[in-house]
Amino acid sequence: MSRWPSEDAPAKVTVKDTEANQHEPGYEDETTNPGKPVDVPQTGDTDLPDGTHFDGPGEVPEGWDVDVNPDNGTTTVTPPADAKPGTEVEVPVKVTYPDGSTEDVPVKVTVDSNQAGEHEPGYEDATTKPGKPVDVPQTGDTDLPDGTHFDGPSEVPEGWDVDVNPDDGTTTVTPPA
Fold first, then answer.
1. Do the beta carbons of residue 2 and residue 79 sit within 8 Å?
2. Which terminus in the chain has less CB density within 10 A, N or C?
3. Would you call 91 exposed, middle or buried from its count of C-beta atoms within 10 A (0-12, 13-18, 19+)?
4. pTM of the predicted model, to two decimals?
């Protein structure tokens, strides 16, 4: 067996930090309603190098739509129209820096659980005669979101008839004769 002489030789190594390690892009959590798009701007590190590129995820949950602006990172997220209130989705946005380094930054969107607290539909009093129907329009908040649905009461006094238009809330009430 041969042996070679050994000797330690110092070598100077410089490790250059990547741009991904030098920057911290980020997004605020957002809420939206079923079927309604929400724009989520990149609000973390606003001093990113020229040439930084943003990409959306390869896959998103079924029924959701995600669009990422490649230049500024603004991410538009649209939940499905039948999304359940309280549903949360975290979408990874890939940030690619000019030096080739990358990082995934999460965008979190929650489907709002309570539109009812934001609106005040209502009705004015109406009068009629026995056996004669009267239409009572919904006159409260008239700027209701698309898809608002009106239902009548589950119980009404005996002899009375109540019919509610599910689209505009107009209620037809017929008292007993």
1. no
2. N
3. buried
4. 0.59
Residues 60-73: pLDDT tens digits?
A: 899 999 999 999 99
Q: Are 160 and 131 in contact (CB under 8 A)?
A: no
Asked whether the predicted pLDDT for residue 4 surpasses 70, the reply is: no
Residues 116 and 36: beta-carbon distance below 8 Å: no
Secondary structure of residue 116 in the 3-state scheme: helix
Measured between alpha carbons, how far apart are the two ends of the chain, in Å?
A: 118
- In sequence order, the 6+-apart residues with CB closer than 8 A to the CB of 177 are 130, 131
Q: Which strands form 75-78's sheet, in the order they lie side by side?
A: 38-40, 75-78, 65-68
Q: b/e for 145-177, b at 16 or more Cβ within 10 A?
A: eeebeeeeeeeeeeeeeeebeeeebbbebbeee
At 22, give phi and psi (nearest 5°).
-95, -10
pLDDT tens profile 136-161: 999 998 888 888 999 999 899 999 99
